[in-house]
Amino acid sequence: MKGVLLVNLGSPDSPEPKDVKPYLDEFLMDKYVIDVPFLLRAFLVRGIILRKRPEESAHAYKKIWTDEGSPLIVLSERMHKKVKPLVDVPVALAMRYGSMTIEKGLQELHEQGVTDVMLLPLYPQYAMASTLTIEVLAEKIRKKSFPNMKLTNFPAFYNKPGFIRVLSESIKKHLEGFNYDQLVFSYHGIPERHIRKTDVTKSHCKIDGSCCATASEAHAFCYRHQCYETTRLVAEYLQLPKESYTLTFQSRLAGDKWLEPYTDVEIDNMPAKGIKKIAVVTPAFVTDCLETLEEIAMRANEDFKENGGEEFLAIPCLNDDDEWCEVVADWIKDWVKN
Ligand SMILES: C=CC1=C(C)c2cc3[nH]c(cc4nc(cc5[nH]c(cc1n2)c(C)c5CCC(=O)O)C(CCC(=O)O)=C4C)c(C)c3C=C
Ligand SMILES: [Fe+2]
């Protein structure tokens, strides 16, 4: 029997440093996130980053935490609950990090008699720090605990018509009556090195945009290309004039060179250029989380206004939007049919 495992990133069990620290340790010790040899990674993460970051992150998590828990978990659960009755096969939900493990998700499907699983990472654009790490871990667990199970990876959906339509319609709905100077498409950043590592041709990605104009098999695994494609397709759907929108990358960690332009720098500089009213959409996330609710809707908003900005609109993620849940259900139905 077929079944589906939806996988999102995960959150700590609580916004207290005692729970944030092990969560960050699991996340940042992942070799697909901080992709350096183990000893160097352990030194960077445990010797440097985890000294201060758990307190800072806990403070940020406390600002967004709800009575029901982490927004990312609660909203993913709501979406899961809505998708389940729309399809005829079992659907489970798991997280890459934290206590809702992929192992538990596969076990739940196994107990329902599922032998053929489609893995659906809830990330529109492919990245080794998001999609690949889920695929690799799920395969490792399958081999060890469920050797007779078949796993199929659902490809990144950055350009799928259903995703582009519901994302565009959601943006349109939230922009109604808001007279903005600039619409910012802010995507989670990654180190440039990750783009080169996932280039299957090993020579295509130049990280300057020129490569995106040439058809290549590298695009199927290029996070930067896929972010630009999502933006281009939404702009086309909404018929946005070229000068009315911009693409940026947020949430970088110190150290390496991350994808540019940086969201915080761009937004802070906008008021001085006469851009006083902005809307920000975050299409690398289908679920609202720390990076959208705290970093964008709170911090970027405050910084924009401190720099002379007047109006700031943070557009929510798709979360458990009915039409989005129907799109996901349709993808599942198509896979079940074939
Ligand atoms: C779009 C998907 C994501 C990619 C790609 C990604 C890469 C990436 N992230 C970090 C470091 C951190 N990210 C953190 C939070 C976080 N990241 C994503 C998604 C992607 N990350 C989400 C959905 C969230 C929010 C989780 C939540 O509970 O709401 C954090 C933790 C919070 C903090 O301390 O800022 C870290 C750390 C790296 C290093 C990276 C690529 C190399
Ligand atoms: Fe992240």
From TrEMBL:
It comes from the Bacteria. It is found in: Cytoplasm. The keyword Iron applies. One of its GO terms (biological process) is heme biosynthetic process. Pathway: Porphyrin-containing compound metabolism; protoheme biosynthesis; protoheme from protoporphyrin-IX: step 1/1. GO terms for cellular component: cytoplasm. Fe(2+) binds at residues 188, 291. Keywords: Cytoplasm, Heme biosynthesis, Iron, Lyase, Metal-binding, Porphyrin biosynthesis. It catalyses: heme b + 2 H(+) = protoporphyrin IX + Fe(2+); Fe-coproporphyrin III + 2 H(+) = coproporphyrin III + Fe(2+). GO terms for molecular function: ferrochelatase activity; metal ion binding. Its EC number is 4.98.1.1. The keyword Ubl conjugation does not apply. It holds the Pfam family Ferrochelatase. It is an enzyme of class 4 (lyase). Belongs to the ferrochelatase family. Catalyzes the ferrous insertion into protoporphyrin IX. This is Ferrochelatase. The gene is hemH.
